[in-house]
Amino acid sequence: MLYLVLNVVADFGLAQKTATKSYLRAAGTKNYAPYEAYTQNRMMTESDVWSIGVIIIEVITGEHPFEGQSQEETINNIKTGKFKPLPNYIQQEMKLILEKMINLDYTKRPTVKELLESETMQLVGMIEKSKEQKESEQKEFEQEKEQMNKKVNELEIKVRSLEIENQREKERADLAEQEKQKALSERYQEKRRTDTEHAQVIRLTDEVIRLTAEVTNLNQLLQSVPSSLRTITYQSIIPDSEHVKQQDNKIIRTNKGWRSTVTFNPAISSGIVRFGGFLEKHPTSNFSIGIADSSAFFGSNEGPHEGENGKKTVRYLKNGNLQHNEDYIKVNSPIEENKTVAMEVHLYDKNSSFTITQFENVLYSSAKGIRGQIIAEWGERWWD
Q1: How confident is the model at residue 8 (pLDDT cuts 50, 70, 90)?
Q2: Strand, coil or helix: what is 288?
Q3: Are residues 256 and 342 in the same domain?
Q4: Spatial CA neighbour of 90 closest among 44, 137, 124
Q5: How far is residue 180 CA from its own chain's centroid?
Q6: The domain that contains 26 carries what CATH number?
Q7: Is the alpha carbon torsion for 93, 97, 100, 106 positive or negative?
Q8: Which of 77, 110, 135, 213 could form a disulfide with 66 if both were Cys (CB 3.0 to 4.6 A apart)?
Q9: What is the pLDDT of residue 159?
Q10: Is residue 122 part of a domain?
Q11: CA-CA distances (angstroms) from residue 161 to 17, 29, 155, 228?
Q12: Using CA atoms, how far apart are residues 47 and 35, in angstroms rounded to an integer?
């Protein structure tokens, strides 16, 4: 190890060989030249020991032991042997050897042999060998590390590839799950539609049953209503045109006169006839509709019950009573406006009207068999 250091010193040009092995002439860098180079102008083996000591101290501490503010001050420190105290972290034996190596008196400096035989230098050699071994191991470690990094990179690539594949697999699984949920949702919606349609079928079936029952009831009611044989073309007989006027099938009471009885031709000599219509704007109870014998005659301002006509008419009054021969039978409901009622018409209130909706022959009477009915004979006295 020391041999290498000596070679370095030689490379610095601190000494050159002369004719003899013992003496060298002064040459090289001044900061690494010992005391004798300045005072005696010569270099020797002990001079190399001094230079080596300076270099070792500078390597350990990071500064030249004789360094001053200038090169001249540094040289003066070398000439006077004034060096900086070595730090305490340097082992004592090593410190003593280094201080001897830079001693001002070259005769007190250790020889190369003494340096090589010293335990400190041997320890330094071991340290250097250990360092070399460590560097070799470090190099091997770096190589192994490089190989390991290479393998790690390869593994990372494989892991990344697996992660990508795993992500794709997850996406495929998610897509499959979405398709599954979609299918379940469609099945659920289809079931709901089926249930709704089934409920609709049940509801419609119930509705059909209900409507069928209603149709049956209506058919039964229709069977009780006389069927029409033919519509009768009628002609109204108005006693006074100032009291009553006709617009199409509507008989209108004017605001003139006291009362007016309107009859209709033809006179019915056989069969059953339905004559009906509805009343408007007639609030009093003096309205009546009824039938009259063909021999009855009604003049201006005459009612159907006056004189001999009372015996020739049957009147259905607005309050629901039936009148014949000036007698009353209280059996019917009152006549309401805009509701159909049938018989001959007697308009009393001014500006009222009666619209004819039916005048026809029928096969049989719808009044037959009505609960609570009263049978009254024409021409006889009617009592309630």
Answers
A1: very low
A2: strand
A3: yes
A4: 124
A5: 21
A6: 1.10.510.10
A7: positive
A8: 77
A9: 92
A10: no
A11: 69, 63, 9, 95
A12: 8
Q: Choose between 181 and 278: higher pLDDT.
A: 181
Do 184 and 263 lie in one domain? The reply is no
Residue 304 CA to residue 306 CA, distance in Å, equals 6
Assess contact for 353 and 252: CB atoms under 8 A: yes
Instruction: Domain of residue 300: give its range.
Output: 228-362
Cα 30 versus chain centre, distance: 88
In a domain, 258, yes or no: yes
pLDDT digits (tens, 9 = 90+) for 252-307: 888 777 777 888 877 676 666 777 777 777 766 566 788 887 787 788 778 787 77
Residues 59 and 108 placed together within one structural domain of the fold: yes
Across 283-296, b (16+ Cβ under 10 Å) vs e yields: eeebbbbbbbeeeb
Q: CA-to-CA distance for 130 and 139, rounded, in angstroms?
A: 14
Q: 11 and 91 share a domain?
A: yes
pLDDT tens digits along 328-350: 776 677 777 665 665 544 555 66
